[in-house]
Amino acid sequence: MNKVKGLKSKDLLGLKDLSVEEIKLILETARSMKEIMARPIPKVPTLIGKHIVTLFYEPSTRTRTSFNTAAKILSANITNVQMSTSSVVKGESLIDTIKNLEVMGLDCIVIRHSMGGAPHLAAKNCKAAVINAGDGFNEHPTQGLLDIFTMIEKKKTVKGKKVVIVGDIAHSRVARSNIWGLKKLGAEVVVVGPPTLMPKGIEEMGVRVSYKLDEEIGDADFINMLRVQRERMEKGLLPSIEEYSELYGLNSDRMKKAKKDVVVMHPGPINRGVEITSEVADGPFNVILEQVTNGVAVRTAILFLLLSGKES
Ligand code: CP
Questions:
Q1: Domains, the chain, ranges and CATH?
Q2: Pocket of ligand 1, candidates 63, 168, 225: which has the most ligand atoms within 8 Å of its Cβ, to mutate?
Q3: CA–CA separation, 254 vs 218, rounded Å?
Q4: How far apart are CA 270 and CA 292, in angstroms?
Q5: Which residues pair with 209 in a beta bridge?
Q6: Full-model pTM
Q7: Which of 94, 195, 266, 277 sits between 20 and 30 A of 28, alpha carbons compared?
Q8: Maximal CA-CA distance, the chain
Q9: Neighbouring C-beta atoms of residue 47, cutoff 10 Å
Q10: Which of 29-38, 160-169, 180-189, 303-312 has the lowest average pLDDT?
């Protein structure tokens, strides 16, 4: 138990593992962090002397940069391991990499990996805090938290709100983290996508499955569009980009069916003209760049909660 701030684990591996109280604590702390971000000098000395490393086996713009920004807000040191020039290319294993980084005196490892469970493996093999920045198709907890933070900013609560998550549900760690968190906080979640991209048994997570976006838009409070992963096309899971956009893309015509105060979200990166048109992505209902700003607040909160008050 991190006695100082109330997170049970030394790590942040997924929303599946967090209690409602822990999710609320992170969201409340993120609100304070957003206030610090608005100051003329957005910096506090809280994590002076702490050292964070990012270890991204997959590309990232938003997540990695926002962890860097978050570390700097809290005055922590941060090192980014560049995979292409690291000893990973010589075949060094994940566990060996983690153990070698840890003995350099690190307090926290932020890891993104194509294999589901890789951050959990890392967490078991080191004393440092491990933060999951996205693992395979499993979870992307900081994205889930920043999405929920943004929803609450917009509509005060997610309890009883209808959240429609659209796209490649089967391969989306963003969808899974959203579902775990939103269901714990009392939202109604509907997942929409082609049958080939809908995982069997997803209803067991407490969501409703729909294959018809047009039938779900009308009473939605939030529409969260997922990135189409083009590699799925190559594997024959989608007929064509054009057909996907026709059935599941968010465009101005579809938006005419939506409520006047609907909130349109996307985790990024966007495939403009595929899952969402530019008109909608840049239009009056979107909060996509606000999500990115909130990502800094949420990640600052997580670093604070995991690392403050702990001995290095
Ligand atoms: N949403 C998200 O995870 O973006 P990045 O891949 O750029 O980090």
A1: 20-138+295-307 (3.40.50.1370), 141-292 (3.40.50.1370)
A2: 63
A3: 9
A4: 13
A5: 191
A6: 0.96
A7: 266
A8: 57
A9: 27
A10: 303-312
